[in-house]
Amino acid sequence: MTPLLGVEEIYSAYGLSRVLFGISLEVFAGECVCLLGRNGVGKTTTIRSVMGLLRPSSGRVVWKGTNITGWAPHRVARAGIGFVPEDRRVFAELSVLENLTVAAHAARRSGRWTTDAVFELFPKLHELRNRQSGFLSGGEQQMLTIARTLMGNPELLLLDEPSEGLAPLVVDSLLEQVGELKRQGLTILLAEQGVEFSLALADRVYVLERGAIRHTGPSAELRDDPALRDRLLAL
Amino acid sequence: MSGSLVFSQFMGGLTTAMFLFLIASGLSLVFGVMRVINFAHGSFYMLGAYLAWQAVQWVQPSGGGFWLAAIFAAVAVGLLGAVVERFLFRYLYGRDELYQLLFTYALVLILGDAAKFLWGVGQLSVSAPPLLSGSVQILGTTQPLYSLFIVVIGPAIAFFGWYALNHTGVGRMVRAAQMDREMLDALGANVGTIYTGMFVFSAFLAGLSGALVTPIESIVPGMDVLIIVQAFIVVVIGGMGSFWGTFWGSVIYGEVLSFGILIFPGFSLFSVFVLMAVILIVRPWGLFGKPL
Ligand SMILES: Nc1ncnc2c1ncn2[C@@H]1O[C@H](COP(=O)(O)OP(=O)(O)OP(=O)(O)O)[C@@H](O)[C@H]1O
Ligand SMILES: [Mg+2]
Q1: How many other CB atoms are found less than 10 A from the CB of residue B240?
Q2: Which of B11, B203, B216 is nearest to B129 (CA)?
Q3: Does the CB atom of residue A37 touch ligand 1 within 6 A?
């Protein structure tokens, strides 16, 4: 079986500072895969390299059998990869509804996600639909960035640290909603530092360390073996 | 000061203002979205004027000739804008201001010389289209029909621009591009194409205003630099990148100039510069702009 997304031995750098050293990973249709690792190990860089926001200096990104390395981000998006950035970049001066329609217009991919469907998943956004998005709370903005990306009807969702900086209660409801997306069959590649969030959702994990993959396996392994978890993550 | 004199000055100021608005709105749009100050915007205006003159020579005696010429000039300048953006301008995005200034100023010199080469250094003029060459009496003053036409066209384009930006899909994309270019790209929008479109629209407006000014002002070398200075002042007064700021900036500029001449004859631009200085001191980001 060929994976939906294949990342093959990519090396990425910001100018002269090299960050990724031969990352390889696979995501199969319907899976939720998590990139786990502490601050600065290269999770965001990996996701940006997949999205075409950063061009790997070597290695390949393969989407459904097609080599998409070096494609512009909008082409990657239109091919069906949805990107939710770590720093919640809502279009601050646009209303919630406008953020959604801009995204639908940008991706030009039809499918099950419409504003109604998105509001059903995030009823809070429906209440706030005419509010300027820059005035939303952190949790509301996080919902909006996810909803906005869904408007492009992606087949794979790249979710970069959705729980970062959110209150525990907000994290719980977000977990619920992302879990719902997974149950509906959406493929997800998640980047997280938090073990709780990622292990609750992921089927498999890749543990990153200094730009390379240190460990890979089913998330149940980490869930059931605190010693392994501590060895990999508590460094 | 009699009522009719005041009205007459007011209308004169408004005509100047609406011309300036047509020109400055393109300058402000490109700055607002792409963050580049295009000093060659005045050169597009100048080329619009020369091209309109040229086209009038070709189609001459026919009655609708002026309008055809104006559309031809605007479209031709728009196309030139497409070439300039695709092959030159896009390397300026994200560069520092000095670099942008030098580059666009080089373009001013090149286009200025090209115009002298093609059309010489003499004054050229175009007569107003027959439909609008008369005048009407309003409140005891004589108003040329052509000025009234300009006074109507300015707000019409302002309204169209405002509506397009705020109530259409493309307009929302342009505003989103202004807020976060990379994010919009990652959502699937080809931001490069949006930028080209904005630049072409801005060049089109400059070309159109150049063509429309020909019945009122003669076409001479140097008109490019003269207009860009004025448009720049308008944009600074109103606030860089602010749409309504550009509109009201133009009105203020036009009226201050018009009444300034009356109050301090011989110092026509003096009052405008004083105004700009005061605004820059009190609100450096302009009347409608946002602090950076
Ligand atoms: N724009 C940049 N320019 C230079 N170095 C960068 C840039 N962005 C990230 N880095 C560096 O690259 C390394 C990996 O960063 P990355 O953002 O991928 O980590 P991360 O795993 O996502 O971390 P976090 O959990 O904090 O989000 C870090 O050492 C970081 O300092
Ligand atoms: Mg990160």
Answers
A1: 21
A2: B216
A3: yes
- Show the low-confidence residues of chain B (pLDDT under 70): 1, 61-63, 292
Q: Which pLDDT tens digit goes with each residue over B16-32?
A: 999 999 999 999 999 88
A125 CB-near residues (< 8 Å, 6+ apart): A96, A118, A119, A140, A143, A144, A147
Ligand 1 contact, A86 CB (< 6 A): yes
- pLDDT score at B61: 58
Q: How far apart, in whole angstroms, are the C-alpha atoms of residue A199 and residue A35?
A: 11
Q: Select the CATH number that applies to the domain covering A1-79+157-162+187-235 from these four: 3.30.379.10, 3.30.390.10, 3.40.50.300, 3.30.70.270.
A: 3.40.50.300
pTM: 0.88
Count Cα atoms within 13 angstroms, Cβ side, for B287. Answer: 20
Measured between CB atoms, does A97 come within 8 Å of chain B? no
Q: What is the dihedral of CA A37, A40, A44, A49, to 10 degrees?
A: -110
How far is residue B212's CA from residue B72's CA, in Å, rounded to a whole number? 12
A71 touching B (Cβ < 8 Å)? no
pLDDT of residue B63: 63
CA angle, corner B284, sides to B246 and B257, nearest 5?
Answer: 50
Across the interface, of B172, B176, B188, the residue whose CB is closest to A74 is B188
